[in-house]
Amino acid sequence: MSDHHHKETFVTKYIFSQDHKMISKQYLVTGIFMGIIGGFMSMLFRLQIAWPDTSFSIVEAFLGNHQTDGIMNPDMYLALVTIHGTIMVFFVLTAGLSGTFSNLLIPLQIGARDMASGFLNMVSYWLFFLSSVIMIISLFVEAGPASAGWTIYPPLSALPQAIPGSGTGMTLWLVSMAIFIASSLLGSLNYIVTVLNLRTKGMKMTRLPLTMWAFFITAIIGVISFPVLLSAALLLIFDRSFGTSFYLSDIFISGEVLHYQGGSPVLFEHLFWFLGHPEVYIILLPALGISSEVISTNARKPIFGYRAMVGSIMAIAFLSTIVWGHHMFVSGMNPFLGSVFTFTTVLIAIPSAVKAFNYVTTLWKGNLQLNPAMMFSIGLVSTFVTGGLTGLVLGDSALDINVHDTYFVVAHFHLVMGVSALLGMFAGVYHWFPKMYGRMMNKTLGYWHFWLTIITAYGVFFPMHFIGLAGLPRRYYTNTSFPMFDDLADINVFMTIMAIIGGAAQLIFIANFFISMYRGQKATQNPWNANTLEWTTPVEHIHGNWPGEIPEVHRWAYDYSKTDENGEYVHGKDFVPQTVPLLDGEEPS
């Protein structure tokens, strides 16, 4: 197959490619571009929060009519918060992790020539690209982009006349998300079919790397939950454009009684959060799977408790679909139902703790190779634990009511989902960059990037817990009207300074990424001495991944530092690739 492929043109190789390796690069570069936009938005609204009455020329330059004398207006503040959240959750973290690494690694790590359907894979990316373009276009409509929060709760999102951000910008938001969901569903179905049907000889499910389990289970969650968000968006479009009342009832605007009757915005909350909470793990599970691979490889130890890790991934996937109601404790929910959601929410701490303890135990007494990928993976374990602990507070309905819609919630989900997932994505980029581009990223710049990122991330979101406990509400564009919050102003200034430094630190990564693509040190075939199948492919990308026959698998992916009864390495080295047959008398792992 690899020797008789048709000659590719520039368009078929780099634009409308059906090769999973090129599609993964397309997802990654698009995700980085969207991340720049989403991150820059956060810088703008952090300036507004820290110095609400100060004029900034940068605000005037980028927001134009949506500011007065360089001071952001309230509508634009809410729009920036909305689009920032949407871009980071869907277009950076979902696409940057699942889109990039599922595409890159699934065929390579299971021993397949390509995805089950290269054409659907290409269509999936281009739908994602189209949805990204529409979301960016929504920033330039006259009344402003969508501004009902990234959760787009009705009635703000359902009534075009409600606020400026409820008009054309909101319509474009809904169209963009509908196309994004179609992209995600096509991709997820492709990943599932590929893992189930195209594994090479000997690659049993119990020999799959944990990355494969994470991507596989993530795809299943996506297939189950994304259609529910699509239905929520379609019903919202009906309410906006066709006079239905799924989410609306007894609405007054400027003294006018609207005709809507019988709907309920709480219905939208149920539909949205049925996707919204599994979305946390659609983002997080791939990052955790990447960290499992990176930590085991760089600790030179087998992953501790492989089957427990697989079980925890499955348990997290199941529980994540039955905890959505913990986002709705203040919606008038029946207290008994609230107690059920509290129970299932606290229960998810068990498989999460299994993962955390297994990471720590894998690191314990390992021969640690502290390269940038390993540092980001260890950072992920740290933020996953610290962010997860605050989840116990928010998962309890009695405690959550006190801090609901405060900065405590913002701090929690940014640490446990946003920062953790970003750290996992960076770990994956540093680890598999040699496989994607045949070159190494600069290690020194990688260390600078890690330390500035982890320090500033905690600098922003650790103090945020305390201003949340003090009662500071989220999404207020200024707090100067509330004297009780005056003492918190200096903390907001500190967090903004840390956010700006952290944002600037990402420029180090972007420079390192694009310069290394062309000028980085050329990579060897297996620079990390890893066991998984992708490192048996040639450095130069070829169609079909392997020249000749696909290699056969004889062992699991984590035979690191395997010794005999004399303490000698069984195969004379501290790693044994999956393609190496078992020796006579060697115990399978």
Number of domains: 1
- Rg (C-alpha, Å): 24 Å
Give the overall average pLDDT: 93
Uncertain stretches of 5 or more adjacent residues: none
Q: What is the overall number of helices?
A: 16
Q: How much of the polypeptide forms β-strand, as a percent range?
A: under 5%
Shape: globular
Under CATH, the topology can be stated as: Cytochrome C Oxidase, Chain A
Strand and helix map with partners:
Elements: H1 10-15, H2 20-50, H3 57-63, E1 67-68, E2 71-72, H4 74-110, H5 118-137, H6 168-197, H7 210-241, E3 252-253, E4 256-257, H8 265-299, H9 306-320, H10 335-347, H11 349-363, H12 372-395, H13 397-403, H14 407-437, H15 443-469, H16 489-519
Antiparallel strand pairs: 1-2, 3-4
Task: Tell me about this structure.
The protein is mainly α. The chain is 61% helix and 1% strand. It has 16 helices and four strands. Strands 1-2 form a two-stranded antiparallel ribbon. Helix 2 packs parallel to helix 5, helix 4 packs across helix 14 and helix 9 packs antiparallel against helix 11. The radius of gyration is 24 Å and the shape is globular. The two termini are 33 Å apart. The model has no long low-confidence stretch (mean pLDDT 93).
Quick summary of this structure?
This protein is mainly α.
Give the key terms.
589 residues; single chain; cytochrome-c oxidase activity; two-stranded antiparallel ribbon; membrane; two-stranded antiparallel sheet; Cytochrome C Oxidase, Chain A; iron; mainly alpha
